[in-house]
Write a structure and sequence with these properties.
This protein is of the alpha+beta class. Among the domains are: 84-229, Helix Hairpins, CATH 1.10.287; 309-443, Alpha-Beta Complex (endopeptidase fold (from Nostoc punctiforme)). The chain is built from 8 helices and 8 strands, in the order αααααβαβααββββββ. The chain has helices at residues 6-20, 39-135, 152-269, 274-286, 309-319, 345-348, 359-366, 377-381, and strands at 337-338, 355-356, 385-388, 397-400, 407-413, 416-419, 428-431, 440-443. The protein has a 4-stranded antiparallel sheet. A two-stranded antiparallel sheet has the order 1-2. A hairpin with a 2-residue loop joins strand 5 and strand 6 (416-419). Helix 1 (6-20) crosses helix 3 (152-269) and helix 5 (309-319) packs across helix 7. The radius of gyration is 46 Å and the shape is rod-shaped.
Length: 446
């Protein structure tokens, strides 16, 4: 609390006395005593300061819990936003599959119509043959089919004709049956594919709605927690101000006590011998203190292994976007794009009106010359070979979210990474964060 030792106070008093007595016939005039607060006043002030410090400690602990909860909720929001990205990708794929199935169904219907026309033609030919045979009073292959012949030549011609017609019409009958079966199979396959594609499209649409609702719930929870955290910060600020006032009060009382004790020491020093004061002054002035310049800090070392040209091309593409603003849903293989609405945090930052990248969009741009990546970090995690974090290299993608992937960045080596962090931020190079990081990196090159 700033209490001086009696010896040091006596030395100060002696120096003052020696200075005053330097001229003969001059008497030392010690000023009147300053205020001397009581021990009870000092204890009361210290108790108040301790109470305020304890309250600050309690609020700090609560604020730490609130900030931890806020960080967890921020990660949850990022997870839900990435799940919404996944739902968008899945819905696009389902729509594409449904469109393909509808086109296949239309082609199958066209083929079925063609087959139906062929079947109708076959049936008409068969009907004409059967009717002709009936009018002749014969059936194919019966003896009566030949009775109308008027000469041996006519008989031979009729035999050849009926033989040819009989074989042809029998083939027609078989072809007709086969065509009917094929038509039924094609109709059934087309209907099944169309129903399956439509079901997937419906399911994907429902999944997107569910993902967006879950995302909004997470956003609401984060906003509520942010408000609670802000309230706690305000309360802690008020109590810290009270603590400063209490400590200032205690400091003032202790200062008065110190001043009184110093006056008391000076009063006692007035009675000290001039020779003793001079000796102490000489001893104090003879001492000197030295200082040595601090050793210069070692220069940072760079020991990243040299990377291949392709890896460097990926890194340079990512590094070329440093400073570009974050926009949720933004970025493609050609560069930054407008963000999209999310109904919450991203909208509050106006991401839909910004041109930039989100985390997975930056990876799409960086790896555009290597591999086309989907706009969802969860799918990007499965897009290449997995390597343990202990073996990760420059150009690997690293991911966060053990309960569900919510973020991706590009590892640069030497413990550094480049990322598009979150709404309100920008593309930046920062040290790798190991909280909530997945144990494997994804390698697309090498």
């Amino acid at each position: 609390m700033g209490t001086r030792t009696r010896g040091s106070v006596l030395a100060v008093g002696a120096l003052a006395l020696a200075a005053v007595m330097a001229g003969p016939g001059t008497a030392l005039a010690v000023p009147p005593p300053p205020p001397n607060p009581s021990d009870s006043e000092l204890e009361a002030g210290r108790a108040e300061a301790n109470d305020r410090a304890d309250e600050v400690g309690r609020l700090t602990s609560r604020l730490a819990d609130a900030e931890s909860r806020l960080t967890t909720l921020r990660n949850e929001v990022e997870r839900k936003m990435e799940e919404a990205n996944k739902a968008r990708v899945d819905l696009q794929r389902a729509r594409s599959a449904a469109d393909s199935a509808e086109q296949a169904a239309e082609e199958a219907n066209a083929e079925a119509e063609t087959a139906s026309g062929a079947i109708r033609g076959m049936r008409e030919n068969l009907d004409r043959f059967v009717a002709g045979s009936y009018r002749q009073g014969s059936t194919v292959g019966s003896l009566s089919a030949y009775l109308g012949a008027e000469s041996p030549k006519d008989l031979l011609s009729r035999e050849q004709l009926l033989g040819a017609v009989s074989g042809s019409e029998m083939d027609v009958l078989e072809n007709m049956r086969r065509a009917q079966v094929e038509k039924s199979n094609k109709d059934a396959a087309a209907r099944e594919a169309l129903e399956e594609a439509r079901a997937k499209r419906t399911a994907a649409g429902e999944a997107r709605v569910a993902a967006e609702e879950a995302q909004q719930t997470a956003i609401d929870a984060r906003q509520a927690q942010a408000a609670r955290t802000e309230t706690l910060e305000s309360e802690r600020g008020e109590v810290e101000e009270q603590l400063r006032e209490a400590r200032s009060n205690v400091s003032g009382l202790e200062g008065q006590r110190d001043a009184y004790e110093q006056w008391q020491a000076e009063k006692e020093a007035e009675e000290a011998a001039q020779a003793q004061a001079a000796a102490q002054a000489a001893a104090s002035s003879a001492g000197s203190s030295g200082s040595s310049a601090p050793a210069p800090a070692p220069a940072p070392s760079s020991s990243s292994a040299p990377a291949g040209a392709t890896v460097e091309a990926v890194v340079q593409r990512a590094m070329s976007q440093l400073g570009v603003q974050y926009a949720w849903g933004g970025g493609n293989a050609s560069g930054p794009t407008y963000g999209i609405r999310d109904g919450g945090v991203a909208d509050a930052h106006g991401d839909y009106a910004k041109i930039g990248f989100d985390c997975s969009g930056l990876m799409i741009y960086a790896f555009a010359g290597v591999q086309a990546l989907p706009h969802y970090s969860g799918y990007q995690y499965d897009s290449g070979r997995k390597v343990p974090l202990s073996q990760m290299q420059r150009g690997d993608m690293i991911f966060w979210g053990n309960a569900g992937i919510h973020h991706v960045a590009l590892y640069l080596g030497n413990g550094q990474m480049i990322e598009a962090p979150q709404s309100g931020g920008h593309v930046q190079v920062v040290p790798v964060r190991y909280g909530d990081i997945l144990p494997y990196a994804t390698r697309l090159i090498g």
